[in-house]
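Comment thread on ticket #2218

A.B. wrote:
> Attaching the input chain for the structure job we discussed in standup.
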Amino acid sequence: MNRLEIFNELSILVSSYHLFAFTALVDSPSVQYLIGWSLIGVIALNITVNMLIVAYSTYCSLKICIKRLLFRYRQWREKCKAKKYSCGPSDGRCDVRVNLEQEEELKVVSFEEEKKMEEKGGLR
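C.D. wrote:
> Ran it. Output below, let me know if you need it in another format.
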């Protein structure tokens, strides 16, 4: 089990132990009130830790996606610069001649290939 699962299980265990204070074992309402705030603190800590981990993993995923998109954009821009333009003699407009069969699809690269590309300077 990873650390987050262990943390969540311990939070559930501590929360369950708090619930005993709301039975007939504890007669004082002021003690039950304080234990209630302690229970709220445990639950808030659990939610906060889990939300921070989700936010951090989302940030890392977005960072990787943005790098990939920038890399693909740079590839596309370089490909467009390399294409030859021809101008029509009669209307003065330029149009791009593209052979769709020669267009290559962008490859989905694995994490290891992406690291190699970053080391070579492909992803910035």
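A.B. wrote:
> Thanks. Noting for the ticket: The beta strands are 85-87, 94-96.
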